[in-house]
Amino acid sequence: MAKAYPDFLDPVETAPREWLDRMQEAAIIRQIHNGYENAPLIREIWDKAGVKPSDIKSMADFREKAPMFDKDDQRDFRDKHNDLTGGFVPIRPGAIMSVGTTSGTTGDPTPVANPPRSPSEVAYARAAWHQGARPGDYLTELLFTYRGGHRNRYASELGFTKILFAMHPAEMPRIAAGSRRYRPTSMKVFASPFILAMEQYVEQSGDDPVDIFKSYKGVIFGGEPLSQRLAALTKSWGIELFETTAFGEVSSGNQCRMHDGFHAPEDHGFIETVDPVTGEPIADGKIGELVVTMFVDRMMPLIRFRTGDLVSIDRSACGCGSTHARFQLLGRASDQILVEGKSILPRELMGLIESESATRANLFQIIRPGRELDTLRIRIGYDPERLTEPQAALQNRLRDKIGAATGVPTQIELVDQAELLKLGPPHKIPRVTKQ
Prior knowledge:
With 435 residues, the protein is of the alpha/beta class. It has helices spanning 17-38, 40-49, 59-65, 71-81, 119-131, 153-157, 172-182, 192-205, 209-212, 228-236, 347-354, 391-406, 417-421; strands at 98-101, 111-114, 138-143, 161-166, 186-188, 218-221, 241-247, 251-254, 262-263, 269-274, 281-282, 288-294, 305-314, 326-332, 337-339, 342-344, 364-367, 372-373, 376-382, 410-416, 432-433.
């Protein structure tokens, strides 16, 4: 018997690699002209580099000649010209639905102009479909800070009904009740603060998390790397987590059921990697900084946008059936630390820190006054209510555990986790600080 619905929402998700390559080359050339003509920031960057859109006639030309930019360029343009879009498409009546921002975890929040239908809305709809959501299903959406709520058009057209909750720990009883009443199929975005809040709710109420989540075919996780403890915890609740990450700020990269990296929606943008220091091209399969060119959002013509993420790219076909490239996300280039010449990224420490009961929330900061250090210094937040031994004993154990795993001299500073939470929500605390 034929399936009532295909596994993928859009045929483009399984398009031949050769077709994707041709489509991307044509789309990039179109977007270059749009960006240069309509986005003041792009024009300024290209003029400074001495490059014109007419110089780009192929993908080879693009990779050789097109200049790159990053968030700092956008923020500088915003401040210099008092342009809330950061130097992108001028606001025209009806062209922009809203202007939001990125989280600001790695600097000032960066403006993001939202068209009536955002590429990220399409990407999340594809992810929900891949997880098993179908017309008539309910989807749970957790709204964090200023984002979400105004992008429901695509879900509605597919026949999905969204149940909206505020991203606040006090919502746990309502999420449990709503999940039981409506039995949603998918949820986004289940970030680490919500998982920790749900864990506390379950411990205090005695509610059964397996029953709460038994209808969910997939739950989208994002905001930071997924730690080993939280992955195991949610699995014990019967949840299959699908990680998500930003894709050029205006779309999203999402895991499939193979859980082997993030699929880049290649009909939305082109990805490449470069050396984070020199900007020289890095071959697929090697670790480099992710550079994204978006060609479906005319409001945000990101042309060779340096994301600051360290990744490796794989363009081979995936076991799920998608032909779109996957990338493994290793961390932020700006968060890389060199201790006695050894590279260390914050995500390498997460499993070690969360393994202790008093520090299971994974609240920590690496203290890095300079790029190269002779000692790994870490400030770790602990929960006083879960501390069952002298603080010095926990501190020494964490020092020995992390030192043994990293192979570098380690110094630990323990602080009440309430102090770190003053810096922001748990998943947005800067992992690297100068002091």
